[in-house]
Amino acid sequence: MGKEPVKNKAAKTNLPLRLNILFLVVFLAFAGLIMRLGYVQIVNGAHYKKVMRANNYQTASIDSARGKIVDVNGTTLADNNAELAVVYIRNASLDGAKNLKIARQLADLITMDKQSLGQISNRDEREYYVLSHFKTLTAAYNNFLTKKEQTNLQNKQAAEYKLLLSRVPDSALHAFSRNDKQIMAIMHQFNQASNLNPHIIKRGLHVNDKEYVDVVDHLNEFNGAIQTADVSSRKYIKNKPFYVGKVGEIPADEINNYLAKGYSRNALVGTSNVEDVYESYLRGVPMKLLYQTKKGIPVGNPRVKDGQRGDDIQLTIDERLQQQVDKILEANILSARSMAGNGQNNSAYAVVMNPKTGAILAIGGKIYQNGKFIDAASEAVNSQFAMGSAVKGATELTGYRYHAMPAQFRDMRIKLPTGSGQKAKYFQSWEVGGLGSLTPEQALQFSSNVFMAKIVSNMAGITLTPAGGEYIGSFPSPNSPRFIKAIHEMRNGYAQVGLGVKTGIDLPSEGTGYNGGMPTNSGLIQQFAIGQFDTYTPLEMAQYMSTIANGGYRVQAHLLQSIHAPSNNPETLGRTIYTQKTHILNTVENTQQEIKRVQKGLYLVTHGSNRLSTGYDLGHGSNVKYKIAAKTGTAQIDPNNLNLYNETLISYAPYDNPQIVVVDIVPRVETGHQNHQIALSIYQAYDKLYHYTSKN
């Protein structure tokens, strides 16, 4: 009997160990899988459900009615005409043939207007011919293109399609019926739509209109591609002020920006001024259309989630005062034109502003043309004028700031340097014999040119030597460092009060006047000091006057008063969302004593006892109650006619507690004081509305 083989005991021992390790690995794997499934379902379940729903649904939106724009008293300046519309909603499943079928169905229900028919292009006609005469595009390609052409362009679909359309004979484009034209007009609108971005086909419908009723009755036939929606068109107050703005189609250069924000291509948006600046508030919450999808394609009619009308914008403007300002300007233009020598005048401008807050109460501008008035109020914001002596308050504040202000100075003419044999030239004030010895306050009261020349002479290194009742002027080179420094200091001083810089008004654009650069003649700095070099806008002048009136802080000009949520009551504003706060842009670098001296000078312009005070009529007699402080200006604007000038007047009232700034300019006149009359009439209108004189 042979021996049994000896078994490997180590192998028997290792086998269970390996199985145990294998079972452990499998167990850990299953445990990890179970934990991962639990994490996905419990922790991230909501997220994945949302993703799943997103894959099963797609959303489109339709803009709601815009918010209203009202004045400070709630008077409506811009509102909506409620209307209904037929809209088309493109999706990836809608090719040319399907769109043609929808357009044919829709053409049986609605009639496109002349404007829509006028938008039909030559390309639209060629596309319609191809789609209506061939069952497939392949058939059309085979009919109009050779096999070689199709092979060469098989990877250039756009070029191939363009070639196909070009092969449609012109003779085929003259046999379209009236119904064909209707279908093409609808197809043209279809082609403007982007995927799931509702595009208005026809608007201006109402609930009882046959077209609207017919479309509603047939909605199920369109499988969600055609819907009806509540839309609106904008309506404005009669003689709408320019600053309200307007709505229109999205500008071509901004289309991508608006599409990224969810707008449709044919949405109406604010295109100017307040309508544009506050578009994000006025637009409102769009209506949502939720489509169920099958393989990524919307099917059936959507679930509708109503939107919300846009927020309402309340302006600082008082429409009652605005209307009065417009009438005052028109009356005074006619009055000026009736005077001899004023044939070149045909316009006037005015700005009314709260000096403490920067709130604009009214902006007016009128041009008389071809026997009627044209609104030109925007020029009070964007156009510049030579303002003349109205800038002298800024000159004095700058003189104080740079320690160039004389305590007293005699007003006599200044003899300017001339070449050999040339006639003598002079710089002088309006009173030929001079205005005598003046303080800074009196220099404003009597509007002394020479006193202002002395201020800038001290800054620029110009010597004025008395000689027999006049001054002999000695002028440095305009390239000298001191002169250049003085020009920069003048512009810096003017900028601090608001001249030559933007006011910050909440409009898309505003002018800053014209910067004359560095003078090539050093004597021109004296012209600078009396408002005959750089130019400014009426709005800038209002901000400048406000800076003096309120004690030295430059406030940002603004039209916005507040923003309100939509109200259920059309007669009242809803909940306040935002209230505009006063924004101080800068504080002038002058002491309160210096500012008060300038204020005193402006008060003397109107209330000084001497009738040579340039605004004497505004502060005496029955006008004393208005407590107007002012500065007049007469800027010569034509070297060939020194009697032609711009009349300006900047003012505020009441002097001891400023509530209102009034600035006006009457360009191109030779005689009269329409600037005084315009300002006085505005104060009278303001007082009738707010009764400020009786409260003082």
Automatic annotation (TrEMBL):
Name the Pfam families for this protein: PBP_dimer, Transpeptidase
Q: Which UniProt keywords apply?
A: Cell cycle, Cell division, Cell membrane, Cell shape, Cell wall biogenesis/degradation, Membrane, Peptidoglycan synthesis, Transmembrane, Transmembrane helix
Q: Main subcellular localization, coarse class?
A: membrane
Segments forming domain Penicillin-binding protein dimerisation? 62-285
Q: Please report the record's description of how this protein sits within the membrane.
A: Single-pass membrane protein
InterPro entries recorded: Beta-lactam/transpept (IPR050515), Beta-lactam/transpept-like (IPR012338), PBP_dimer (IPR005311), PBP_dimer_sf (IPR036138), PCN-bd_Tpept (IPR001460)
- Note the SUPFAM superfamilies from the entry: beta-lactamase/transpeptidase-like (SSF56601), Penicillin binding protein dimerisation domain (SSF56519)
Domain Penicillin-binding protein transpeptidase, by residue range, is 349-682
Transmembrane spans = 21-39
Subcellular compartments: Cell membrane; Membrane
Q: Which domain of life is it from?
A: Bacteria
Q: Which GO terms describe its biological process?
A: cell division
What family does the entry list? Belongs to the transpeptidase family.
Q: What is this protein called?
A: Cell division protein FtsI/penicillin-binding protein 2
